[in-house]
Amino acid sequence: MTDKTLRLTTAQAIIRYLNNQFIEIDGEELRVCGGGFGIFGHGNVTCLGEALYNVQDTLPLYRGQNEQSMGFAAAAYAKQWLRQRFMLCTASAGPGTANLLTSAALAHANRLPMLMLCGDTFQTRLPDPVLQQLEHFGDPTFGVNDAFKAVSRYWDRITHPAQIIQSLPNALATMLDPADCGPAFIGLPQDVQGWAYDYPEEFFAKKVHRIRRQRPCTDEIAAARTIIADAKRPVIIAGGGVQYSRAVKELTALAESCDIPVVETIAGRANMLSDHPLNIGPLGVTGSDSANAVAERADVIIAVGTRLQDFTTGSWTAFAKDAKIVTVNVGRHDAMKHQSTPIVGDAKAALTDLHQALNGVTYDASWTDFAKAERTKWDAYVAENVAAGNRANSYAQAIGVVNDLCDPRDRVVAAAGGLPAEVTANWRTKGLGTVDVEFGFSCMGYEIAGGWGARIAQAQREPDKDTIVFCGDGSYLLMNSDIYSSVLTQKKMILLVLDNGGFAVINKLQNNTGNESFNNLIADTPTVPTPFTVDFEAHAASMGANAETVANPAELGEAFKRAKAADKTSVIVMKVDAYEGWTTEGHTWWEVGTPEVSDSAKVRDAHTDWESSRPKQRKGL
């Protein structure tokens, strides 16, 4: 410890600190902050911009087109790096920062690290009220940035330069903690950003971080071992936490040793290759008949690295009411759900300990034979479902074409709308950890921005592979400007725009609950006198991408080959049917609110039919 100090502005100190934080990954030391996404305004350009200018070689700042999409890109970047690295997002005071709220919520729901450094009103209040300031008459400290308290794992507002000495390490600790992982928000008043302070030199010393692996309690392993060993029909649910823990090998070893069937959540897709004999398929509302048949008959559920969202549990109808649940999760909150027997700890460590505890335990071959037979039937259904030429163009056909032609290490990105269900059900995993279906917050607009962020990360490790984005026309129209970003930054994506004329999956839900089509498809929107089709090809081309429109899956295949061979972002547009071609199998019940009374007989009948499955619902905590 020395008394040496460095006189720096608050903004300069923040960036200097981040520039000296490293993480060890596979024996290599990398900056834990991979850089950032930024849109400058008066609230961050003069001070934070000045600080970032001086480190652009080590903390590259990608110029955003929209603050919300910057946050989506940062989330996808963190996913690609398995939460070991993060990106910062900087936005100006007011609407620029407010635009980050949705992406912060997405990162929070998905337990993803993202650092937000955002402008704030003046600490002195001398120029108040300032441009873009929201005034609350009874609380002058309350502003837009306070909204982030609900969607951040760590929140702070810096009112004195010395505060970052405590705040920054705490923010990093939160983002790198497997149990607490999520977005960190730091509000930076415009005057405080430029105030100088004599910081201890040691604060900026290089530090190498390592992700904590919390060992599970031996008593919890013992309790779980008793339940699992007594089972007749166990099943493992593999969630996204398996990948974040880098526990795929341990998961597979346990399943193979005890001959236990494995089913995957949406976030856990690509924990096992599709041809592994114990991979019984995706589970839940957007799952497979095979996984759901096994889950329904299982007497013990071993849930690993999943928060047991309703699409996984079928709103808690996917399992037998008397089935016992053992939950392995580093987060106590997730491990305790529905009166589970918890194992609170790192998935890799917990699976290793469970494997040792269950040494020699096996189950009647008839159980695994049943699971494998169900998977064989599901594979036959998927093969027929993705086959071209037997019906109108569909999502499943497009997925099948791309699946057949892609490289095993290409990364697939999808989100919201109908495509998450279709990708989850129909994609046949060729490479571990290669699927990003954002359904934690189910956020339209993530697809293209997330593809850009994923590609930035992917290019750092696998530059010769591709990021493939599936996007509906609704999400495209919501947020598409990062096509331009990808071209500008030479971060190639292959984007499939599948146009079904509106928000077709919600139209399907509308119809399935007895309602008439209304305000979802463009053709069914009363305020649209003359519907017309957007020229997505021309629009994408105007942003510098290669773009073409195809008429059918065969043409899509040829266009995809050209996109693979190209050196910049390619956009391929194909119309798909809004009513025909949906994946009709593999769905569990999903609780949605339906009208108990209605003038429509169809709505009343649909309500009765929907509610008929409610008796299967577990009444857990």
From TrEMBL:
NCBIfam families: myo_inos_iolD. Residues 431-573 form the Thiamine pyrophosphate enzyme TPP-binding domain. InterPro entries: DHS-like_NAD/FAD-binding_dom, Myo_inos_IolD, THDP-binding, Thiamin_PyroP_enz_cen_dom, Thiamin_PyroP_enz_TPP-bd_dom, TPP-bd_CS, TPP_enz, TPP_enzyme_TPP-bd. Residues 599-614 have a biased composition (Basic and acidic residues). Belongs to the TPP enzyme family. Residues 598-621 are annotated as: Disordered. Residues 221-354 form the Thiamine pyrophosphate enzyme central domain. The lineage of its organism: Bacteria, Pseudomonadati, Pseudomonadota, Alphaproteobacteria, Rhodobacterales. Pfam families: TPP_enzyme_C (PF02775), TPP_enzyme_M (PF00205), TPP_enzyme_N (PF02776). CDD domains: TPP_PYR_POX_like (cd07035). This is 3D-(3,5/4)-trihydroxycyclohexane-1,2-dione acylhydrolase (Decyclizing). Its EC number is 3.7.1.22. It comes from the Bacteria. It comes from Octadecabacter dasysiphoniae. Keywords: Hydrolase, Thiamine pyrophosphate, Transferase. One of its GO terms (molecular function) is 3D-(3,5/4)-trihydroxycyclohexane-1,2-dione hydrolase activity. Residues 37-132 form the Thiamine pyrophosphate enzyme N-terminal TPP-binding domain. Gene3D superfamilies: 3.40.50.970, TPP-binding domain.
